[in-house]
Model the fold of this input.
Amino acid sequence: MTERKILVTGGSGKLSAEVIKTLLEDFNIQPKQLIVTTRKADKLLALSAKGVDVREADFTSPESLEKAFKGADSLLLVSIDASGPRTQAHLNAVKAAEKVGVSHIVYTSMPSAENSPVIFAHEHDATEKAIKQSTIANATILRNNWYFENVSEYFASILQSGQWLTSAAEGRSAQLSRRDLAYAGASALIKPIEGKVTLPMNGVQSMTHAAMAKVIDKVLGTSINMVHLSDEDYQAQLESFELPTPIVDLCVTMDKHNRGNFSDGTSEAFEKLTGKQPQSFEAWLNENEVNLKKVMQSI
Done:
C-alpha cells in the first residue's frame, strides 16, 4: 500500500465511522495514511490515539476546509447531516478540494438525483454537477440507495404499531445496509477509478414495501398491515399525527420517489466496485433481530 493520504469527512457520523473502521480493519490502511475531519475533534479522541490525523472542518468556511483538506490525495465527501439546505456547504467542500489539489474525490449521493421528487434531491444534483464541472481529475459519485437501517431509525413506528402507511404502491427500491455502503465508499477510496464516473449503489434485491413487510413478518414474527394511500391521504394522515411539516414532506416525497422506481436497480455496479455481493434484507434482519425486537417493544 502506498503512502497516499486518504481523507474522510464527517468522521463522527454513522456512515463515515463505518467507512473509517472498514479502511483500518478490512483494507489495513495505516492510521498515519488517514485524515478524518469533523466539527469537533474532541469527539474522535480514540482515532487520534491510534495515529489518525483528526482535523476540525467548518463547511461554512472555505478557508477552514482548505486547511483541513490540505495534503489529501483521495477524499470521501460524505453528504453532511444538516437540518437546513446543504448545497452551499457541499459546494464549499468541492471548491476546497479542487483548490488544494485533491486528485480523486468520492461523493455519497442518492438515487436519480437529477430527477427524483425527494425534497433534498436538488442538493445532491447540484453537488454532482459541481464535481463534474471541477478541475478535479478523478471523481466517483456513489448514488447510495436507501439504508436498511431506516426501518429502525426512521420508521420504527412500523415495527411498533404493525401498520405500514405508504403511497409507494408497487414501486421497488434496491435497498442495502449501511455497512455495505461503507464498504463501497472505502473501496472507491483505495481503488480510485480514472475519470469521472457515477455508480448506482444498489442492493441485491429490489423490493416493494409490501414485499419488505413480508420478510419482516417472517424474521421478526410480526403481522404488518399494509395501508396503501394516495399522496394526499398519506400527507393528511401524517399531519394528523402532528408531525413537523418538513418530516411530512420528506415522507411523502420519499414514497413518491419509490413509487416512480427511482430507487430500482441491480447490484452489478456495487459488486464490480467491491468484489462482493451486498447483504440481503432477510440476512440483515436476522443479524439485527435482537435490536429490532427491542425497537418493537420500546413504545
Remarks:
- The domain at 6-146+176-204+264-279 is CATH 3.40.50.720 (Rossmann fold).
